[in-house]
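In response to the reviewer comment on reproducibility (Comment 2.3), we provide here a single inverse folding case reported in full, input and output, so that an independent group could reproduce the run without further information from us. The structure tokens appear first.
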């Protein structure tokens, strides 16, 4: 078993993005299923953490952008400068 821990600044850009993606996936179960499938595929086709991350990077980048766009419409306090490009 392996663990991957991320430490981010409370209220910072990554903090906002992570929570926004969480909320977006909860509100869009179909997209959550696509994300789960992308993670399963990446895990099956790679054998180490960085390769796993690289394998799903495009999907995750798109997911973050979609989530932040969604959040800015649902909750205007999620400012465009919170985006990760």
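Designed residues, in position order:
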């Amino acid at each position: 078993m392996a663990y991957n821990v991320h430490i981010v600044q409370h209220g910072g850009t990554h903090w906002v993005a992570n929570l926004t993606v969480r909320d977006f996936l909860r509100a869009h179960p179909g997209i959550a299923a696509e994300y789960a499938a992308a993670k399963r595929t990446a895990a099956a086709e790679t054998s180490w953490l960085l390769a796993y991350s690289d394998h799903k990077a495009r999907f995750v980048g798109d997911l973050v952008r979609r989530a932040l766009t969604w959040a800015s419409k649902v909750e205007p306090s999620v400012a465009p400068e919170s985006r990760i490009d």
